[in-house]
Amino acid sequence: MTNAILSSDITVLLVDDDDVAIEGVLRGVRRQGLECKMETACDGLEALQILRGTHESKSITSPFLILLDLNMPRMDGFQFLEAVRADNQLRNSVIFVLTTSARDADRMRAYEENVAGYMMKSAVGPQFVKLMALLHSYAQSVVLPTR
């Protein structure tokens, strides 16, 4: 794909402790020609530091969206969701869950925390092609909040 399909104004924060998944998403972004800023966090604690501007070397700008794994050390995805939704500055963050969990209880719990979508890593295809298509469609269709 030669056309840029995500605005370079959008930043994507990928919160995942799986290096293979992170590399897969980053590779998919490059292969699909997505022109967006990418930042990564290894767990919910690091993601909160980035979002709150307290991380020593990583930062994020608005508008942004978050791709969130659920199963991580220190602070898992659900703890992160609860912290974000309780934070007046972050509560309107657009968050998509990207996980290996097929549990109905996990999906229902994530939607109760107002996620924009729940995606299974196994269902988004090689090089995360379906995820890239979703990000493209989403970015073309909505105006993301800014802080």
UniProtKB/TrEMBL annotation:
Chain segments annotated as transmembrane: none
SMART domains linked: REC
Stored PROSITE patterns: RESPONSE_REGULATORY
Keywords: Phosphoprotein
Domain Response regulatory: 11-136
Pfam families xref list: Response_reg (PF00072)
InterPro entries the UniProt entry points to: CheY-like_superfamily (IPR011006), Sig_transdc_resp-reg_receiver (IPR001789), TCS_response_regulator (IPR052893)
Superkingdom, natural source: Bacteria
Modified residues (4-aspartylphosphate): D69
Protein name in the entry: Response regulator
Provenance organism: Chromobacterium aquaticum
